[in-house]
Structure to design on (207 residues):
């Protein structure tokens, strides 16, 4: 695990000399009735699962901007939830409810390789993914220390969309990016690609 954490230390920080490539979704899943869900104009929380607060703030702001640009009220999680309470699912649930959040988009670093990429079978089987509040403590128990620098990196990131009211997983996907040009660029690339995939799957309505 120490070795893996060291390898993952470079993933979301600035790689000034690297060439950024658009994220490519390699697996995805959607709930059967996802076409009937609409978040247009509603508040959606953007959450980056990371112990690095500076990284979280930067990436969540980028995620909130990208969500807002797509017709919802994007809000960075760090603006709603105190840092010391972010890992407590019961307290976080209360913050979501008080803020009137309709949904949450969660991004979590999975690995440098494809070997541990979550599969459609995992998302369908429930397990940790069956509910937002079952997934929440699991996600925070599987973070990596993100620091340092490395070139020629392949980043595998899990992106999940949960409905807050019933804690149901609506959409899931894992994307692979090569040599991200910093956290904000990585988030933008993933959201751009995810939006395209969600349009295909009916979660985001085409204009």
């Amino acid at each position: 695990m120490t070795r893996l954490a060291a390898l993952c230390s470079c993933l979301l920080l600035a790689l000034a000399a690297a060439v950024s490539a658009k994220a490519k979704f390699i697996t995805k899943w959607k709930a059967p009735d996802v076409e009937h869900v609409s978040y247009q104009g509603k508040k959606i929380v953007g959450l980056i699962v990371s112990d690095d607060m500076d990284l979280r703030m930067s990436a969540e702001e980028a995620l909130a901007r990208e969500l807002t640009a797509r017709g919802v009220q994007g809000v960075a999680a760090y603006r709603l939830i105190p840092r010391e309470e972010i890992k407590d699912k019961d307290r976080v649930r209360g913050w979501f409810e008080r803020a009137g959040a309709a949904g949450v988009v969660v991004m979590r670093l999975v690995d440098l390789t494809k070997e541990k990429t979550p599969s459609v079978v995992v998302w369908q089987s429930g397990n940790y993914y069956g509910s937002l509040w079952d997934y929440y403590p699991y996600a925070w128990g599987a973070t990596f220390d993100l620091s340092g620098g490395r070139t020629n990196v392949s980043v595998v990131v899990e992106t999940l969309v949960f409905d807050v009211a019933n804690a149901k997983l609506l959409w899931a996907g894992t994307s692979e990016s090569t040599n991200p040009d910093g956290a904000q660029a990585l988030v933008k690339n993933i959201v751009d690609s995810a939006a395209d995939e969600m349009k295909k799957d009916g979660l985001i309505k085409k204009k």
Residues 7 and 20 are 19 Å apart (CA to CA). The beta strands are 24-30, 43-49, 73-76, 103-111, 154-163, 169-178. The radius of gyration is 16 Å. The chain has seven helices and six strands.
